[in-house]
Structure formats: C-alpha cells, structure tokens
Design a protein that fits this description.
- This protein has nine helices and no strands.
- The longest helix has 25 residues.
- Helix 1 crosses helix 4, helix 2 crosses helix 3 and helix 6 crosses helix 7.
- It is mainly α.
- The radius of gyration is 22 Å and the shape is elongated.
- The chain has two domains: 47 residues, Orthogonal Bundle (Arc Repressor Mutant, subunit A); 133 residues, Tetracycline Repressor, domain 2 (Orthogonal Bundle).
Length: 206
C-alpha cells in the first residue's frame, strides 16, 4: 500500500518586521491618501492590510505615530532623490533636469503620498506641517545654492531663494497634473519646465 505524502503547507510566508512595516506603510499611504488623516481608523488600516490590530499596534503605537512615520518616510525618499540629482557630477542644467525628474518620478510612484505631503504643507496640524516644511526648506536651500553657483554670485542668496521657491512650486504643481500619465508626455513636461527654468536662471542677472 502506497504511503500517503503529507499535504504541502499552503499558508503565506510570515513577513519579517521590516517587510511588514513597509507593507503597512504602503497600505496606510493608500488609505490616508483616499480619506485623509482624521477619517481613517487603525481598524481600517489593519483590515486593508490583512492583519489584526495587535500586529498593527506592534509596529505603530497610535494612528498619529503611523501617519508621522508615513510622512517621514515619503519626505526622506523625495529628499534623497532630489539631493542625489543636485549632487550629480554633471552640468547645472542637467542637475536641474534630474531634480525636476525626481519630483515627477516620485509623484508617479507615490501619488497618494505626495498628495498627502502637499495637503499637510498647508494643513491645520502644526506637527505635520512643520515636518513637511523642514524638508521643503532643506530642498529649497540646496536648489538656491545651485542657483547662486550658476549665477557666479551675481544673484545673492536672498534672490536665489525666491527663484528656488518659484521653481519648486512650479514643479510640484505640474507634476501633480497627470500622475502616472504617458511617459512621453511626462518627459515633455519636464523638458518644458527645464527650458523655462534655465532661461530664467541664466537671464535674471543680466
């Protein structure tokens, strides 16, 4: 008589803590992005993630902690990409292009997260607003530094910060217009913004 083989296990592999945390943040980004901070409960996030509330609370003690972790993660990711673009060993025009592209890529990959960052930049919660403002100010300073270099000192720091603020606002607005749209149209938008920005930067001091 043939021996019966034991049935193969069909259960899902248990996630390691970093994987689970990343998964929970991905779900939270989608849920908060759709409904906002105040309308979402930890129970909703847990249900959407397919975990129990105790597992969610093991990683994030409160809804505020979860939301802050999400904001911080997305801010860090965006800042890292922009910083790498501005530090690339290329000409300043290509650095501008790469930094604009970094914004577009981030919006395409994390549309809900970017929308949350823009909402919190002018939101009622001071703690959230300050976290966004701190990173935006760092990006502003880095872009302004590039503008000072390109103008060879003919634009002072104050004027360069005004130009940098205008460029960042322009890119943030246009990048959100059609997130995830056809790549060719997204590239055309970046090209147009680069031409506009570069013409302005190089002619402001004339």
């Amino acid at each position: 008589m043939a021996r019966t083989q034991p049935a193969a296990r069909t259960g899902r592999r248990r996630m390691r803590a970093p994987e689970r945390r990343a998964q929970l943040l991905d779900v939270a980004r989608r849920v908060f992005g759709a409904s906002g901070f105040h309308a979402v409960s930890m129970e909703t996030v847990a249900k959407e993630a397919g975990v129990t509330k105790p597992i969610l609370y093991d990683h994030f003690p409160s809804k505020r902690d979860l939301y802050i972790a999400l904001i911080d993660a997305d801010l860090a990711a965006l800042h890292d990409e922009v910083r790498k673009a501005l530090a690339a060993p290329t000409g300043n025009r290509e650095r501008i292009r790469a930094s604009f592209q970094a914004y577009f890529d981030f919006v395409d990959e994390h549309a809900e997260g970017f929308r949350l960052l823009m909402q919190e930049a002018v939101g009622a919660e001071e703690e959230f607003r300050q976290r966004v403002a701190q990173v935006r100010d760092q990006i502003l300073a880095e872009v302004a530094h590039l503008i000072v270099r390109e103008s060879r000192g003919r634009l002072d720091r104050g004027h360069s910060e005004i130009v940098a603020l205008a460029l960042i606002g322009m890119v943030e607005t246009v990048a959100q217009r059609e997130p995830g749209g056809p790549p060719e149209r997204r590239r055309e938008a970046v090209d147009l913004l680069v031409r506009l920005a570069w013409r302005g930067i190089t002619e402001l001091d004339q």
